[in-house]
Write a structure and sequence with these properties.
Blueprint lengths: L1 H9 L5 H26 L7 H30 L6 H34 L8 H69 L3 H20 L5 E3 H19 L3 E7 L7 E3 L4 H12 L6 E12 L4 E11 L14 H14 L4 E8 L2 E9 L3
Parallel strand pairs: 2-4
Antiparallel strand pairs: 1-3, 4-5, 5-7, 6-7
Helix pairs in contact: 2-3, 3-4, 3-5, 4-5, 5-6, 5-9, 6-7, 7-8
């Protein structure tokens, strides 16, 4: 029984401790209001802090106890997707009954407090008590409607945030699904080019591709992965490319240990590595170089530490070399995904430092 009652409070759209805190604050407000009213009217009797505090606190703490019933009424009003007279009548009837019950309990407790304080217990069916009950029930009814409105607002916000989260997740999945075929097509194209030239190395490349596909399948449902996992994927990819280009490329890494456990969007760095190979290594006759750096640095723009990922590659400046036209899918994909994950709390740049050196850089908020 107690477990079921706790579950009712747990299912509320607002945590019960926050509701309790709100009721205490409201009680304090009305206690001070009553004291101010006493001073303004200059009544000829002493203001009883204890008596007033007990009466007002009882009124609002009782609403805290009744919140599961109030929320059940909220659920009725939420079911009104279209005008339904029976549900509306059920809601109004429930509100009236609950408001009367609230005022009935409060008035009885007030009578007990007065009895303890003055030794006099009023008749429950007395004329004054009935008038107080009727007028007070209307006040309780208004308070109840306010609480229902607050619950509706919190429920709406919760559903809105869940819908936004689901929408963003679906958009990110769509972007990632664009990326994976793009990456696989380029890799398979590289392997196809190797089969007739060097079948042994083509077999090695297929084996590496299997490792990469395993990674993609294992982390397919993950939006965020650790730097360590993403770096492992990048190294496998570059190992695959080194099988093809052998001595034409030198790859160096500068990775901070403290960055390894931090989280970044899944496959966010891979398109930059792919571009470095496609535009920096493939056209190079020899001595191509790729440098990958991942560091934790203080960022002046964010005014705190940030994760900095960058990659640079040499570029062929031979006049006879014509740069292949790119689709821009990779860079556009990165920008969209960063926008979805971090809103405007990121920096992304990709441009030439010099005619011979291209650099791409991401500065991201730290996520443990």
């Amino acid at each position: 029984m107690l477990k079921r009652i706790r579950q009712y409070y747990y299912n509320l759209p607002v945590a019960i401790d926050k509701i309790l805190l709100a009721s205490i604050i409201i009680s304090l407000f009305f206690i001070l209001k009553a004291y101010t009213n006493h001073l303004i009217n200059d009544y000829n009797y002493t203001f009883s802090w204890l008596l007033i505090t007990l009466k007002i606190t009882i009124t609002y703490l009782l609403w805290v106890i009744l919140t599961p019933l109030v929320y059940s009424l909220t659920k009725i009003i939420q079911s009104l997707n279209r005008f339904n007279i029976s549900n509306l009548l059920l809601f109004l009837s429930g509100c009236i009954i609950l408001a009367v019950c609230h005022k009935l309990i409060v008035s009885r407790l007030d009578d007990i407090v007065n009895y303890i304080n003055g030794g006099y217990l009023k008749s429950f069916f007395g004329h004054n008590n009935m008038v107080v009950l009727v007028i007070g029930s209307f006040s309780s009814f208004i308070e109840l409607l306010v609480i229902v409105a607050i619950f509706l607002a919190f429920d709406y916000q919760k559903k809105y945030l869940l819908n936004q989260k689901a929408l963003i997740a679906s958009q990110l999945n769509a972007l990632r699904m664009q990326l994976q075929p793009h990456f696989l097509f380029n890799t398979l194209h590289s392997i196809a080019a190797m089969i007739d030239i060097d079948s042994k190395n083509a077999q090695k490349m297929l084996s590496k591709l299997g490792t990469l596909l395993r990674y993609i399948l294992e982390y397919d449902a993950e939006q965020m992965v650790t730097v360590k996992d993403e770096l492992g994927f990048i190294k496998d990819y570059l190992d695959l490319e080194q099988v093809r280009y052998k001595d034409r490329v030198t790859i160096s890494y500068n990775i901070a240990k403290e960055a390894m456990h931090l989280k970044i969007p899944n496959m966010i760095f891979q398109p930059l590595v792919e571009n470095a190979v496609k535009y920096g290594i493939i056209p190079t006759v020899e001595n191509g170089e790729i440098k990958i750096g991942i560091q934790v640095e203080h960022n002046g723009l964010m005014q705190k530490d940030a994760l900095v990922l960058q990659i640079s590659n040499t570029f062929n400046t031979n006049k006879n070399y014509t740069k292949p036209d790119g689709t821009g899918t990779g860079l556009l994909n990165i920008t969209k995904r960063l926008k979805q994950f971090y809103d405007n709390r990121y920096v992304f740049s990709a441009d030439f430092d010099s005619p011979e050196l291209y650099r791409a850089k991401m500065v991201l908020p730290i996520i443990e």
